[in-house]
């Protein structure tokens, strides 16, 4: 069976971008009989970006509850916390030993950090940790540990997937065919959801719309999305409007068509936002109640994660045994 795998970093509250870019398509994929799904909470990755233990813990609960509230069937999918699978950091080390440093030098996130330092007149590596630098190796280990064929992600993760393929090939070349080369799966419609300021919706830009805002606050957040100053009656361009991009990610093809026509007819921004709110709220109202129930019962969430870790380790343990043998640090028992 084809294996599908994806993860979310536990550094904040889940937002609309995570939902349309990752969680929703992943849950849909998990319903396909022909696939085996692996979805996880990337809590080791969280430590690269977040130094606040309470926040990491809270985010882990929130993101876990999100997957469950949105209807992930944990009987079929393997749903786990990265840190519950100790073979993942172990594999990270084996992979580090075949990964070219030059490859990591080219990682977008690392390069951006170096550029920021240069712009600020600092030393290039000022404040940059080994965690940030080797982030893509940990991510490769997440994927290769379960030999995932397909990895549904947002566009921002494409380079990480390319690196994972490169690392898999190097390992295979040196030690034999242990890994499949994973492929990124990107839904072109929702490739990058913009945030309230028009840039990519991201925790780091402070422009997110949290997924589980109560109705009134959700409406308020949507009303705050930036638009241009065109008046009602003036034709508007859907392809440059964040409100339309978000609308399109939630709407079906007919609704999209109708909204494009309304833009051409000069619909008022306030009206677009009202319709966007109604669309999003209708999809989220029922899962929101389940989410709130789960947040009030963390033991149930924990229980799901423990069961998931058991299933994950039934796969990661024997593979790790084979890999240790392959590199020569153990005989195959
Ligand atoms: P993270 O936690 O930043 O984001 C989780 C997923 O949500 C997608 N996403 C978006 N999609 C569309 N529009 C947006 N505005 C938006 N913001 C976020 C991301 O592309 C991602 O798919 N490194 C990963 C986590 C990770 C991972 C993995 C993913 C760790 N190991 C292994 C796949 C496989 C990350 O930081 O995603």
UniProtKB/TrEMBL annotation:
Enumerate the InterPro entries for this protein.
aa-tRNA-synth_Ic, Rossmann-like_a/b/a_fold, Trp-tRNA-ligase, Trp-tRNA-ligase_bac-type, Trp-tRNA_synthetase
Query: Which residues take part in binding L-tryptophan?
Result: 142
Give me the Gene Ontology terms describing cellular component: cytosol
Q: What class of enzyme is it?
A: ligase
Q: Which UniProt keywords apply?
A: Aminoacyl-tRNA synthetase, ATP-binding, Cytoplasm, Ligase, Nucleotide-binding, Protein biosynthesis
Localization:
Cytoplasm
Q: Which GO terms describe its biological process?
A: tryptophanyl-tRNA aminoacylation
Record bears the keyword Cytoplasm: yes
Q: Where is this motif: 'KMSKS' region?
A: 200-204
Motif 'HIGH' region per record, residues = 10-18
One function term, GO molecular function aspect = tryptophan-tRNA ligase activity
- Where ATP binds, per the record, is at 9-11, 17-18, 154-156, 193, 200-204
Q: Which Pfam families match?
A: tRNA-synt_1b (PF00579)
Q: Which CDD domains match?
A: TrpRS_core
The catalytic activity of this protein is classed by the Enzyme Commission as 6.1.1.2
What reaction gets catalysed by this protein?
Answer: tRNA(Trp) + L-tryptophan + ATP = L-tryptophyl-tRNA(Trp) + AMP + diphosphate + H(+)
Q: Please give the family membership noted in the entry.
A: Belongs to the class-I aminoacyl-tRNA synthetase family.
Subunit text: Homodimer.
What's this protein's function?
Catalyzes the attachment of tryptophan to tRNA(Trp).
Name of the protein this chain belongs to: Tryptophan--tRNA ligase
The coding gene here is trpS
